[in-house]
Amino acid sequence: MFFEENESGISASFALSPPYSSYPGVVHCGIIATILEELMGNVLVIKERRLCFTLKLSVKYVQPVFVGTEYTGKANIEQINEEYYEVASGIYDREDNVVAAARGTYKAISPVQALRAMDIDETAMAKFRMYLGGNNNK
Amino acid sequence: MTSGFQEIKSKIKEIICSELKLAPETINEKTKLREVPGVESIKILRIIVLIESHYRIELEDSVIFQSETIEDIAIATKNLLASKAEDRK
């Protein structure tokens, strides 16, 4: 997905192919959750320049998401607390009706903590650092 | 966000009327949502998501399935907002 930044958050348009379906023609709920979570994780990187991990993810499925149909995903940060972020995301059809929505809680970690917690090396980490701006050591 | 109970009821009514394309005078806070013509479970779910998005809250599943009237949803919303405000103190 290609994320576009806007004033309140980010958005991304997408259409999924049949391999992502569960019932014929209908996107699997786990894929929808993945997209919603990806939107929320990326709004934190793009808007806050922070690496975060997911503490909590809650999804509401309102209507089926169909393969081969274009949707728009949107995410925005709702609350910035000392210890964590509260973020929301949604998937909208062409008429801007919400078809699925999520809320997530995220904990920011420093690149040093990320290196320690994940099995990645400094080369892989460099890929993330370019997005972090002045927050490289937070 | 702090909101008075009356404001919450008005906002929820506005969301419902907008989503169901109803004239405001056709429903009131005691109207049973599932008895409103044209209402189906998907529309109620969408209304709940719109309320959650407006107030930046997450309503319990029991609110979705057990609330009968606008007032019921407004009470749950008010209580959740109060609880969140308390958590932030």
Describe the structure in your own words.
The complex is a heterodimer of chains A (about 140) and B (about 90). Chain A is α+β, with helices and mostly antiparallel strands and about 140 residues long. Chain A has helices at about 30-50, 110-115, 120-130; strands spanning about 5, 10-15, 50-60, 70-80, 85-90, 100-110. A 6-stranded antiparallel beta sheet of chain A has the order 1-2-4-5-6-3. In chain A, strand 4 (about 70-80) and strand 5 form a beta hairpin. The longest helix of chain A is centred in the first third of the chain and has 20 residues, at about 30-50. Chain A starts with a strand and ends in a 6-residue tail after the last helix. The model of chain A has no long low-confidence stretch (mean pLDDT about 90). Chain B is mainly alpha-helical and about 90 residues long. Helices cover about 65% and strands about 0% of the residues of chain B. Chain B has 4 helices and no strands. Chain B has helices at about 5-20, 40-55, 60-65, 70-89. In chain B, helix 1 packs across helix 2. Classes of the chains: A alpha+beta (about 140), B mainly alpha (about 90). The interface between A and B is medium-sized, with 14 and 11 residues.
Q: Given the structure, what is the number of helices of chain A?
A: 3
Distance between the termini of chain B: 13 Å
Computed structural class of chain A: alpha+beta
Q: Can you list the strand order of the major beta sheet of chain A?
A: 1-2-4-5-6-3
Report the biggest beta sheet of chain B as strand number plus sense, adding barrel if it closes. none
**What about the largest sheet of chain A?**
6 strands, antiparallel
β-strand amount of chain B: under 5%
**Largest interface in this structure:** A-B, 14 and 11 residues
Total DSSP E strands of chain A: 6
Q: pLDDT average of chain A, as an integer? A: 90
Share of residues in strands of chain A: 35-45%
What spatial form of chain A do the alpha-carbon principal axes imply? globular
Compressed to H and E, one letter per element, the order of chain B equals HHHH
